[in-house]
């Protein structure tokens, strides 16, 4: 691929000599080193060299909307700035400037002007001790004509640099790394630090200068936008109520209202993420806290904290690759885990890869939040296939919250048979005492119009036929660390019986498990599976694996277990009546991804007010088929939903991609049942719209339920709306999520709107706020365009 690019060699000091054999231009620039006049030129050959851009030193950041010309002028008058050495990669629409202090600026051309640029993003790399500004050295550049496609800079002694930063235009990076395929309008930063100099490689991005932030993953307190949150820097892998608030779905990808896209290689070793982290953390004022899994954490503070609840955070998105998961602030299940394999080399360097801590981050500058989201989705693989339309058309009924594990064959209004339908965990056969005629029960439910699914997980207890069969064949994960009063490889979870985990890196073990699932289907007639667990039980998050676990095929990242569970096991049943509740690089699997278990409360701390932000976050991350958790919550510790909460929760979910009941509305009161049934009738009126949006989502990953800014990404009022969503481009849903409220304010974007379920109602011309709209308990506020908009231009996907 590089042969099509020209290479030029200039005189270089010793720090570049050992790289000069590459098919790149190897030109070095160090502020105190003698170099030829040619190598001083940091702009592409043939371009007029502009005046040196004066940049403020960290931690100062530029104001939102400030352009490069203004930045140069304002910095020149600032006594704290200096004439910094820098590297410039100038593209047609986007440029990147790197300074000797480790700062980087992503610049995008102003509309209609090639000579003026906006600052789209600003950040820095964390330089280790000894990597001073004066040691900054530009070691190589790759040109295509007059454009610099790739360059590398180093800090530290020339012969043994302490830090390396490789900057690649997105087209070059996409040809090398699959995680950033199809990205454009930006650059990939590949940052490496010598382990002897620092224990982590960190790339920091300023939050405030890029506007409002969205994405990242599911959180216990799902604040929208993310600027409202103070996310403590911590391990970033799928978790059940994680130590920094991270929950069951993570994707290290963020976008902003100004069109900045920041995405990290999802397989970054020991990835840690912080966003506007509490300043106490940076000052070392927190004592170490211990976190278990699931219900073990329910008595702890739910995170992340709100910025408004305390002093502001550090103002940074911190992305870190580390040497391990150890943290002085928190103890967590993978605290002592080390990989049994190592990831492929970040780049082909002479030094051993094990000597470096490395990470890659892509930064792209688009026009707005919607464009950034669509660009992010282009880097992912869409499923091409929609999950079963049965899940769109009618609610799922599950036994969990109503009966927990006390499920039997007695007559119930259920479709999804949850925990403890089998006699022993791991045995994929119905307990004949509870279910004397499972096939007959399934036939009866089919006759009533139900599809039937059962809950499954890859954990096996010792007192099971599955364990006796699988252990002899080596189908389970082992461990070098003996548990307390347990055999090696066994671990404790929410239930009393210790279990072992299926080794998903063993193809024979996966085939054995899938074969048994299909045999269960054939024997009983069930339609699908809930690849998950309720009540904080394991759902394939790696936090549930035993300490120091070992797999047949060594893995370099614990999130690989998550990906294998979804893609290799659940993925065998995609397109069917199935769901999962976790994910890692699994946007291309045609399954519903369920939110983590919700509490039967009103607030944003995993209650009703967290539902819409979590749904919107799923769509931003490329998981449009999002299944909200059970309506009314899980009623943990006897905290059952009230009549009002149950009705409002049903209304919130009524027009979402799928619905799920467990607590029956008629168990509360006849009036509860009547109002919930009325909300379900509204869903029937939009079912064709849901089908159309599901097909679009399968082809392009476009969200089914969309943030308000998707309708008009230039409308600043939409960026902070966290309690409304758009169903496609022509419907706005604005449920009531405040306890006791019978009115609410509703925002309508540009266009002519009317009540979606009252065609004779008045019309409103947006953009406008409707203040104090009547919303009694019987009403779900919903609006549709009088004149439907044209559909978005579809994405063009690569194969």
TrEMBL record:
Keywords annotated in UniProt = Glycosidase, Hydrolase
Gene Ontology molecular function: hydrolase activity, hydrolyzing O-glycosyl compounds
Keyword match Acyltransferase: no
Glycosyl hydrolase family 31 C-terminal domain ranges (all copies): 702-785
Q: Does the keyword Membrane apply?
A: no
Instruction: Give a GO biological-process term.
Output: carbohydrate metabolic process
Q: Cross-referenced InterPro entries, in alphabetical order? A: Alpha-glycosidase_related, GH, Glyco_hydro_31_C, Glyco_hydro_31_TIM, Glyco_hydro_b
Q: Where is the signal peptide?
A: none
Q: SUPFAM superfamilies from the xrefs?
A: (Trans)glycosidases, Glycosyl hydrolase domain
The residue ranges of the Glycoside hydrolase family 31 TIM barrel domain are 413-692
The similarity annotation says: Belongs to the glycosyl hydrolase 31 family.
The molecule here is called Glycoside hydrolase family 31 N-terminal domain-containing protein
Organism, by scientific name, is Coccomyxa subellipsoidea (strain C-169) (Green microalga)
What does UniProt list as this organism's lineage?
A: Eukaryota, Viridiplantae, Chlorophyta, core chlorophytes, Trebouxiophyceae
């Amino acid at each position: 691929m590089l042969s099509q690019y020209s290479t030029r060699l200039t005189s270089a000091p010793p720090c570049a000599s050992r790289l000069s054999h590459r098919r790149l231009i190897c030109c070095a620039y160090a502020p105190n080193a003698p170099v030829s006049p040619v190598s001083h030129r940091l702009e592409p050959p043939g371009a007029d060299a502009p005046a040196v851009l004066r940049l403020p030193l960290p931690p100062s950041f530029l104001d939102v909307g400030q352009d490069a010309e203004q930045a140069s002028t304002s910095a020149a008058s600032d006594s704290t700035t200096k004439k910094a050495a820098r590297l410039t990669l100038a593209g047609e629409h986007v440029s990147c400037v790197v300074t000797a202090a480790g700062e980087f600026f992503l610049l995008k051309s102003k509309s209609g002007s090639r000579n003026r640029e906006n600052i789209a993003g600003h950040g820095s790399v964390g330089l280790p001790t000894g990597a001073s500004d004066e040691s900054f050295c530009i070691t190589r550049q790759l040109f295509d004509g007059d454009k610099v496609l790739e360059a590398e800079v180093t800090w530290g002694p020339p012969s043994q640099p302490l830090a390396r930063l490789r900057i690649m235009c997105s087209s070059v990076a996409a040809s090398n790394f699959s995680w950033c395929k199809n990205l454009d309008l930006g650059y990939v930063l590949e940052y490496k630090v010598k382990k002897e100099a620092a224990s982590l490689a960190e790339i920091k991005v300023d939050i405030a200068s890029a506007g409002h932030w969205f994405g990242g993953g599911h959180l216990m307190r799902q604040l929208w936008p993310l600027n409202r949150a103070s996310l403590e820097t911590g391990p970033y892998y799928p978790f059940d109520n994680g130590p920094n608030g991270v929950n069951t779905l993570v994707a290290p990808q963020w976008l902003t209202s100004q069109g900045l896209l920041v995405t990290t290689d999802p397989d970054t070793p020991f990835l840690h993420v912080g966003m506007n982290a509490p300043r106490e953390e940076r000052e070392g004022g927190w004592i170490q806290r211990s976190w278990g899994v699931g219900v073990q954490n329910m008595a702890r503070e739910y995170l992340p904290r709100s910025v408004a609840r305390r002093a502001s955070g550090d103002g940074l998105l911190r992305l870190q690759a580390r040497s391990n998961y150890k943290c002085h602030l928190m103890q967590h299940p993978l605290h002592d885990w080390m990989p049994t394999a190592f990831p492929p080399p970040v780049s082909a360097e002479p030094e051993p890869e094990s000597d470096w801590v490395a990470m890659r981050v892509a930064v792209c500058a688009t026009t707005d939040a919607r464009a950034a989201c669509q660009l992010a989705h282009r880097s992912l693989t869409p499923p091409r296939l929609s999950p079963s339309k049965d899940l769109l058309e009618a609610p799922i009924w599950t036994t969990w919250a109503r009966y927990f594990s006390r499920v039997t064959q007695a007559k119930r209004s259920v479709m999804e048979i949850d925990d403890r339908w089998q006699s022993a965990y791991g045995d994929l056969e119905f307990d004949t005492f509870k279910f004397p005629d499972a096939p007959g029960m399934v036939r009866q439910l089919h006759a009533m119009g139900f599809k039937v699914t059962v809950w499954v997980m890859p954990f096996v207890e010792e007192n099971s036929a599955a364990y006796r069969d699988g252990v002899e064949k080596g189908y389970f994960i082992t461990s070098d660390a003996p548990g307390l009063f347990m055999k090696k490889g066994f671990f404790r979870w929410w239930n009393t019986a210790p279990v072992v985990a299926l080794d998903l890196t063993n193809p024979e073990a996966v085939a054995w498990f899938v074969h048994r699932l299909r045999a269960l289907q054939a024997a009983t007639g069930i339609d699908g599976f809930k690849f998950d667990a309720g009540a904080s039980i394991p759902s394939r998050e790696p936090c549930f694996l035993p300490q120091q676990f070992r797999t047949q095929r060594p893995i370099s990242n614990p999130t690989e277990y998550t990906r294998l569970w979804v893609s290799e096991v659940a993925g065998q049943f995609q397109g069917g009546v199935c769901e999962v509740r976790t994910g890692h690089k699994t946007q291309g699997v045609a399954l519903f991804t369920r939110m983590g278990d919700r509490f039967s409360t009103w607030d944003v701390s995993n209650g009703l007010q967290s539902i819409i932000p979590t749904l919107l976050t799923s769509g931003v991350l490329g998981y449009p088929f999002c299944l909200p958790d059970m309506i009314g919550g899980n009623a943990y510790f006897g905290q059952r939903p009230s009549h009002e909460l149950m009705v409002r929760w049903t209304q919130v979910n009524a027009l979402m991609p799928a619905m799920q009941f467990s607590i029956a509305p008629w168990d509360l009161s006849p009036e509860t049942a009547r109002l919930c049934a009325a909300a379900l009738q509204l869903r029937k009126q939009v079912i064709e719209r849901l089908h159309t949006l599901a097909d679009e989502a399968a082809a392009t990953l476009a969200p089914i339920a969309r943030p308000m800014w998707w309708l008009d990404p230039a409308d600043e009022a939409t960026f902070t709306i966290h309690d409304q969503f758009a169903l496609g481009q022509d419907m706005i849903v604005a449920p009531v999520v405040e306890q006791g409220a019978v009115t609410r304010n509703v925002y309508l974007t540009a266009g002519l709107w009317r009540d979606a379920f009252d065609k004779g109602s008045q019309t409103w011309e947006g953009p406008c706020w409707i203040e104090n709209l009547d919303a009694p308990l019987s009403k779900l506020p919903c609006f549709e365009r009088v004149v439907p908009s044209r559909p978005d231009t579809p994405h063009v996907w690569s194969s």
